[in-house]
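User: Assemble these into one structure.

Assistant: Restating your components, then the assembled model:
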Amino acid sequence: MGYDLFLGCVIPARLPYLEVSSRKIFEKLGIELHDVDGFSCCPDPTGIEQIDHKTWLTLGARNLSLCNSNGGIISFCSGCVETLKGVNYSLNKDNEAKKEVNDYLSKVGKAYEGKVEVKHFAQVLYENLDKVKDSVEKPLEGFKVAVHYGCHYLRPSEIIEWDDPFEPVTLDGIVKNLGAESIDYDLKMECCGNPVEKSDKDLSLQMIDNKLKAIKESGANCVVVVCPACYQQFEFNQRELNKKNNSEYDFPIFYLSELIALSFGFMPDELGFKFHRIKPSKLFESISFTV
Amino acid sequence: MSVINFEFRNEVLKHNASLSYCYQCSTCSGGCPIALITNGKYNPRKIIEEAILGLKDKLVESQDPNPWLCSTCQKCVELCPQKVELTEIFTLIKNRCFESHKYPEAFYLQGHSVFENGIAIPYSNAIVARRKTLGLPEIKTAPIEEIKTLMKETNFEKNILEGNK
């Protein structure tokens, strides 16, 4: 059993500290993740797919063709999951496209069969919620978490086939089982705005500003995300917005794996928390969470 | 003046037949976060209307509304009572914009990086060192020639190189 690990681009090449906590919690849970040589970009469903659908299908199918673990593919990134699930979905319902893609792949000695299951890491965690709960050594008391699901973790639901597209429960469920509180807030289901940055930076900033405003009003003291694009949008733009608008955003942004790792008793030092732009240490002090 | 381009309309329909189900109720625009913050300047219903009418010059040449503003949040797809796969249709429109070299530079940069490196973000020396410090394994990504061969086959190479103006 076990899963083939699809890392994608953003986490390993820009935010490797998020990979650390993700690997550690799966190891602790006894769920095997296998590294695979030779993956390319998934490719990005908000980038490459938008400029060339055929290339997106072909490179996605090539990635899927490299997988041989029984559990299929697991990824820490919602974008990679959407692409790999989306490629499966498109090619399995369209024989003509599947044949065309396989013609391309034959040029490099690969073949797409369409039998590899793809899962988001949070899905696997939710499916193992009892194990997660049993591994909590330090309940996250005082953590008032604004859960941000993000779009591609849920939608299009016909392709993702996981959780409800508008009233999801899985991430809140995991967070609560760590001993933290999930705080409801306005605009919880709205997009973070990251993909629009490629076309219109101001619009993208406005979207994240609206979300942060709503989170501030809710009384939450941190945010949890499951997608590296959302992570960057929340983490990298707070200071910029503060400069621009005199706002005072100061929310530590956690990857779900980081919160879980903390509750499992891992130390901030070994999780690379020093690489966060908004240091979580201030929050730990304010809620007397001893690490 | 806009001219109806039947060929383009048929191309969209062939790519995604759900286009013909649209009855212009505007549920998509009502739920669209970009339509909301642009006061309707970005308007998914209108893009679909122009696709039904085959107004290629509006969609690809003048880009009014601008399809690149879609955040791909997929809310419209979930909300549509007629199950029109709007974002799939927007993808085709943006693909045609790409072929006409009318697209934001960030998309070019990503496309170019994947063509040159096989991945969107190449590993810098600093990141390789940081991965080591963090105890993470070395990543062996796709052989670049293999990715280039595939991207030549799909015509991506031609479009991305021509777009470099």
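Chain B touches chain A through 57 residues (CB under 8 Å).
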